[in-house]
């Protein structure tokens, strides 16, 4: 640091003894106050980050606007096309986000509906299997009745054939006995 009689480099103070005249001292004090005020203002500006950020943003916007204007002057159709493309992209992105936000509940409802359909399909499948099993059981009983009926018919036929055979044998025996 510098001492009380020394001034920092770049200061425009005369490098010499301090004045002894009261008017000169007042002038020196006034000059020091002004210098201190400027230093405080500069430090305040450096420490005021939001204001500096705002100024930087304003400068950036101005530079961007100037660049856009220069580019437009150089090639208007390309700038218009680029602007339209950028605007279309932004509108498309916003529409996509809005649709996605709106369709999230719809997708959840669709998933629940799909689960319900799967449960209904499983129940229908089970019902079909049960009907098929019942039909097979009925068909099995019917087949058993048909087989039983067939066996009974065959048994009656055999009995009829036996009776006829016995009757023929008896008739033949009577004829033979009467011829003797």
UniProtKB/TrEMBL annotation:
<feature type="region of interest" description="Disordered">
    <location>
        <begin position="135"/>
        <end position="180"/>
    </location>
</feature>
<keyword id="KW-0472">Membrane</keyword>
<feature type="compositionally biased region" description="Basic and acidic residues">
    <location>
        <begin position="1"/>
        <end position="10"/>
    </location>
</feature>
<dbReference type="InterPro" id="IPR022062">
    <property type="entry name" value="DUF3618"/>
</dbReference>
<feature type="transmembrane region" description="Helical">
    <location>
        <begin position="78"/>
        <end position="96"/>
    </location>
</feature>
<feature type="region of interest" description="Disordered">
    <location>
        <begin position="1"/>
        <end position="26"/>
    </location>
</feature>
<feature type="compositionally biased region" description="Low complexity">
    <location>
        <begin position="167"/>
        <end position="180"/>
    </location>
</feature>
<dbReference type="Pfam" id="PF12277">
    <property type="entry name" value="DUF3618"/>
</dbReference>
<protein>
    <submittedName>
        <fullName>Uncharacterized protein DUF3618</fullName>
    </submittedName>
</protein>
<feature type="compositionally biased region" description="Basic residues">
    <location>
        <begin position="143"/>
        <end position="166"/>
    </location>
</feature>
<keyword id="KW-0812">Transmembrane</keyword>
<keyword id="KW-1133">Transmembrane helix</keyword>
């Amino acid at each position: 640091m510098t001492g009380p009689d020394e001034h920092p480099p770049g200061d425009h103070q005369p490098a010499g003894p301090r004045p002894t005249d009261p008017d000169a001292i007042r002038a020196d004090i006034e000059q020091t106050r002004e210098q201190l005020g400027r230093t405080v203002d500069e430090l305040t500006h450096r420490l005021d980050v939001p204001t500096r950020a705002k100024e930087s943003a304003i400068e950036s916007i101005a530079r961007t606007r100037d660049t856009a204007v220069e580019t437009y002057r150089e090639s208007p159709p390309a700038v218009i096309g680029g602007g339209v493309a950028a605007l279309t992209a932004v509108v498309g992105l916003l529409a996509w986000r809005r649709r996605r936000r709106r369709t999230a509940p719809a997708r959840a409802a669709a998933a629940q509906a799909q689960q319900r359909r799967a449960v209904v399909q499983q129940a229908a499948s089970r019902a079909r299997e049960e009907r098929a099993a019942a039909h097979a059981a009925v068909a099995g009983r019917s087949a058993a009745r048909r087989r039983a009926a067939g066996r009974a018919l065959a048994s009656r036929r055999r009995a009829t054939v036996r009776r006829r055979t016995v009757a023929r044998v008896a008739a033949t025996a009577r004829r033979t006995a009467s011829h003797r």
